[in-house]
Amino acid sequence: MRSAEVSLHFSYTEFAGSYGVCFKAIRSDPDDTDENGKPRQYAIKRIFPTINAAFILVEMLILRLLDGQKHITDLVQGFRLDGQVSLVFKYQKSQPFLAYLNKLNLEEIKNYMFTLLTAVEHLAYWGVMHRDIKPTNFLYDPKSHTGLLIDFGLSELEIDSQTGKPRKHPDNAQVMRIAQLQR
Predict the structure, then answer these.
(1) C-alpha to C-alpha distance for 167 and 158, rounded to whole angstroms
(2) Which CATH number covers residue 49?
(3) Strand ranges inside 82-182, DSSP E
(4) Per-residue pLDDT tens for 105-128?
(5) What is the pLDDT of residue 132?
């Protein structure tokens, strides 16, 4: 999707944080459907205009680097509308952490932890520090046993203090671009 093609219908606010507001949305394109033929759902993170553009770009580049793999949210696109940046993600069905916390059995707890730690392992492989892992930033659906690590607004690469280079994959052009923006 190009930003010029974006036509979304926002349904309701799901979460308001200190950096923006998240909405659940569908595209107005009738051909954009899921495997059940229903309109595909997206999560839109509208970032407050007071947030530094470099922080937003670092978040977007880190998400592109992680590529929606290993239980990490998948950035579909970013766009600017009326001076406000919005990021579009695939929607993850989930429940609030406290709604299922005391209801999980041992196998379900193992699955939750395995899913979360798989995401953390992927971050470690790329040298990314999330810096805000907490239950509200790990969307989990106990019915489908799926989880997704979200909200990379505070994330950054590990940088070697001696060399000033990224600790992992310093020859990767995208990693180097992120490292330069972090300075």
Answers:
(1) 6
(2) 1.10.510.10
(3) 84-90, 128-129, 138-141, 146-149, 156-157
(4) 999 999 999 999 999 999 999 999
(5) 93
Residue 155: both structure tokens together: 């994330």
**Where in the sequence is the domain holding 7, given as residue range(s)?**
3-182
The number of folded domains in the chain is 1
Sort 38 into a burial class: Cβ within 10 Å, 0-12 / 13-18 / 19+. Answer: exposed
In whole angstroms, give the CA distance from residue 147 to residue 3. 28
**pLDDT of 11:** 52
pLDDT of residue 27: 83
Q: Among this protein's residues, is 132 annotated catalytic?
A: yes
| Token reading at 44 | 């839109």
Of the residues 132, 141, 151, 171, only one is catalytic, namely 132
pTM confidence score: 0.85
Q: What torsion do the CA atoms of 156, 71, 108, 113 make, to the nearest 10 degrees?
A: -30
Bridge partner list, 8: 27
With tokens 């950096």, the residue in question is 19
